[in-house]
Amino acid sequence: MVRLTYKTTVFICLFASISIGLKGHGAIDKDKEYIELIDLYESFHQFIDPEVKNGVPDYRVKSMSKKLDELIKYQKKLEAIDTLGWSIPQQVDYQLVKSEMNAMEFRHKVTRPWSRDPAFYAVINFQFGPKMARSIRVPEVPMSKDRLKEFQTQLRAIPIILDQARKNLIEPKADLAFIGIHTKNREREILKELIPKLQSKHPELVSDAKSALEAIDRFRIWLEKIQPEIENNSGIGIDNYNWYLKNVAMLPYTWDELLLLCQREYERAITSMKLKEYGNRHKPLLDPVDNREDYLYRYNNAMKHMYDFLHKIELFTVPDYFKAPKAANSYLRNTERDYFEHVLDRYPLPLSAHGFLGHDLDAQRHKKDEHPIRGKSRLFFIDGVRAEALATALENFLSYTGLLDDIPQAEELMYHLQAFRAIRAVADLRMHANQQTFEEAFQYVTDYTPYGWVPKDSPTIWHDLELYMRKPLYGIGYTIGPVLIERLLTERYLELGKDFNIKKFMDEFMEIGFIPISLLRWEMTGKNHTQIPPYWE
């Protein structure tokens, strides 16, 4: 059986409509315009990256200014497409394209990472977050002949990239420089670990690797010199945050409303956690395991329970391709526990539901989506709220439907996670309002995470707050995302009444695609992102 792509199907349907005369000329024109949208979107995806020569991406000020001018042309072409008479799914696709173009505009006009953010010039790809094009993934050693040649070109580009970066960074911010110093220290460690391996297997690369290491050190020293002298204000400001909320994320809230919601969610989580603890006061505590054997026993039993529960409860249709999570095979606690280790060592199920069902299954489903627009990877992290929304909501939904009934103390961990995420969301909002510096936000999250589960040098908090500082809105997704899903569920229940079914709701939510929740709502309810629920009126 030949499997057709979405775009091919559109062309076939268009041809069939013309041939048998089932559509009028207006409908045919609409099909042509939708195909025009697909072509524009594919061209836009090819356009976004800078020019690269000998491994060096061009982020010079003049080049970025030219890129913005070209983006404006893309936006005008999008505006010229007539969507009158389009179906809601087609209008959703149009809005998705518009949102990604708006996100690129925001990048050029507000965040400007090539001129503000030294950490953007991460020459080695070792972490999640915004970074320059062609950031290097360090290969396994030994390498194939082709990979060796490619890696040598990449190594030789590093000194040129970082020399150019110093010229490009005409408006660096202190917190972003502080993060950039940390990035360069980590890159230095990675290269220092790699060089002995190259000496053994690929000695011809050693000189290039050492030159790259020296360039990284020069860049780090330069950042250390300028960092105390430059202004902070690394956040984007409330007005810009609100523009992004409206024009990119399409969330029905302002910065002020989000702050109030996140503070309220923190208080609710703390209250729920303490009440659950009180209800469980006569039950044994969930103490953390401290050895590999007990950890693996607890982890593997929890994973089996989760997989069996999914098929029993039928909260959503479990696809055949989703298999039970593999058994864990390691347990390393050589230092003080970080936050997630405190959770996992007590009981892994709440957090594992987030990862395996919220992220892994979501990613598998999205990978199979052949739609030419919503089936593509989202640009500029505009899918962050949607990704964390489902992952976090599933923790709660599964708990509400009985996943943790056999170990009620585990619900204490679920509420602890909610409090932890809400306080990080508040830090996200305050950093971007320039009400907290990066270090103040770090201390704030450390102070207000219950039970002191965040060590003072927590890699988890560093990674999270770095991402939130450099990618606006990501930090609120864990807390506001589930609020949006609950809002949509409420709206559907009020629309359908006795015909409402949770399983059908979840299946429809997942089937529509990996797009912002406001666009999911549009397809599910017929109300676009500018229309409020009737019970808000």
Question: Keyphrases for this structure?
Answer:
mainly alpha; 20 helices; disordered N terminus; two-stranded antiparallel ribbon
Strand order of the largest sheet: 1-2
What coarse outline follows from CA principal-axis ratios?
Answer: globular
How much helix, percentage-wise, in residues? 55-70%
In total, the number of domains comes to: 3
Order of helices and strands: HHEEHHHHHHHHHHHHHHHHHH
Radius of gyration: 25 Å
Mean pLDDT: 91
Given helix and strand content, the structural type is mainly alpha
**Unreliable stretches covering 5 or more consecutive residues:** 1-26
Note the main sheet: 2 strands, antiparallel
Q: How many DSSP helices?
A: 20
Total beta-strand segments:
2
Query: How far apart lie the N and C ends?
Result: 51 Å
Instruction: Report the portion of residues in β strands.
Output: under 5%
Account of the 3D structure:
With 537 residues, the protein is mainly alpha-helical. The protein folds into three domains: 6-115, no CATH class; 117-229, no CATH class; 239-318 and 338-536, no CATH class. 65% of the residues lie in helices and 1% in strands. The protein is built from 20 helices and two strands. Strand 1 and strand 2 form a beta hairpin. Helix 3 (61-80) packs antiparallel against helix 4, helix 13 crosses helix 14 and helix 15 packs across helix 17. The model is unreliable at 1-26 (pLDDT under 50).
